[in-house]
Amino acid sequence: MIQIAKPYLTKEEADAAAETVLSGWVAQGPKVKEFEQRFAEYTGARHAVAVSNCTTALHLAMIVAGIGPGDEVICPSMSYIASSNCVRYAGATPVFAEIRPDDFNLDPDDVRKRITGKTKAVIAVHQIGMPAAIDELKRMCNEHGLKLIEDAACAAGSSYKGRKIGCHSEIVCFSFHPRKVITTGEGGMITTSNEELSEKFRLLRQHAMNAGGYDRHLSGAGVLPEEHTELGYNYRMTDMQAAIGIRQLEKLDMIVKERRNIAEFYNRRFEKIEWLKVPVEKEGCISNYQSYALTLLSGSPVSRDELISLLGSEGISTRKGIMTAHREKAYRDLMPGISLPVSESASDNSILIPLYYPMKEDEKEQVAHAVEKIFRKVLKIV
Ligand SMILES: Cc1ncc(COP(=O)(O)O)c(C=O)c1O
């Protein structure tokens, strides 16, 4: 079976984790600090704060942005559910906006229509690694006094207008889950251009205790006047995860380059099939191709679900397109009757196909050939 995704982990990552275990620093310590510094350098962000995953990063983003009960936050429904759950954690209401069917990212015109007196922020997701319309959304947020938060869970290594995702707005949240382009097992990072916010993130991730374990260690025999200054959380990353992350980050550009080559290979093969739409990179957008999605156009002789099962019988693992949160029970009961036709159609007619590094020539060929064969067969060309 050709898998949909695989993390690229080598002996280097295993050795880095083992060395960290033997160092005795297994919770948040010097490796986390080093990973943060390197991630900030890589993305061009002023500050990077490591956390336990992207969901906790987004939760802290909500708190730091001052989101609370009575507030509305505009976000896409067609995203992983964490993109809207974070709004609910803060006691606020997610307001779902439509996406653009060609890049699966927030449609700025639709976002504008949904701004009310209660709107406090917009969450722009870089869906499956494809950069969203950051500049347009940023202008709109500035005009209306709203915070822009980037959910870059899938977008480590992607670029927008010549600069890496992570340096474009005040709060950007990343994931290092194994389904992402680089991984630390579980893990997340927040980048920010604002020093005050970075300090706030550091405080909140460690129970709002004003001296962390590493600071206390560095203080030696001295007594630190530690205090828990507000309601905080335990959202820390461990040094083992960070040690793995440092090795992964060194490989990120190489992995993205290879993933883009695979995406180009698929584009060349699937552009020729008139019922398939390949991913679109809008001007200035460079995707890391965290996933590769094909959209079945209307009139396709094969439905999306048929394609999934036919590819499965060819030994190729695939997934349905990105979910919509508003059709999940967790949201249907809370806010019934929402209709988002563009998001629903994009979600129901798309399929994610295998893309990972390193993907062998014959594996790519097997995937492309299987898709072509299925369309030829239903059209009785062979
Ligand atoms: C768009 C998006 N946001 C947030 C998350 C949550 O990331 P994590 O699993 O690191 O909490 C994911 C994970 O798949 C995601 O795809």
Provide an overview of this structure:
With 382 residues, the protein is of the alpha/beta class. The chain has 2 domains: 11-250, Type I PLP-dependent aspartate aminotransferase-like (Major domain) (Aspartate Aminotransferase, domain 2, 3-Layer(aba) Sandwich); 253-378, Aspartate Aminotransferase, domain 1 (Alpha-Beta Complex). Helices cover 40% and strands 15% of the residues. The protein contains 13 helices and 14 strands. α1 packs antiparallel against α9. Residues 53-55, 79-80, 82-83, 125, 151, 153-154, 175, 177, 188 line the site of pyridoxal-5'-phosphate (PLP).
Give a brief rundown of this model.
Helix content is 40%, strand content 15%. It has 382 residues and is an alpha/beta fold.
Helix and strand string, N-terminal first? Answer: HHEHEHEHEHEEEEEHHHEEEHEHHEH
- CATH fold topology of the largest domain: Aspartate Aminotransferase, domain 2
Low-pLDDT parts are none
Give the total of domains.
Answer: 2
Q: Give the total of beta strands.
A: 14
DSSP strand (E) fraction? Answer: 5-15%
Task: Give the rounded overall mean pLDDT.
Answer: 96
Helix content: 25-40%
What is the assigned CATH homologous superfamily of the largest domain?
Type I PLP-dependent aspartate aminotransferase-like (Major domain)
Strand order of the largest sheet: 1-9-8-5-4-2-3
CATH architecture of the largest domain: 3-Layer(aba) Sandwich
Please report the number of helical segments: 13
Ligands, ions, cofactors: pyridoxal-5'-phosphate
| Biggest beta-sheet profile | 7 strands, mixed
CATH class of the largest domain: Alpha Beta
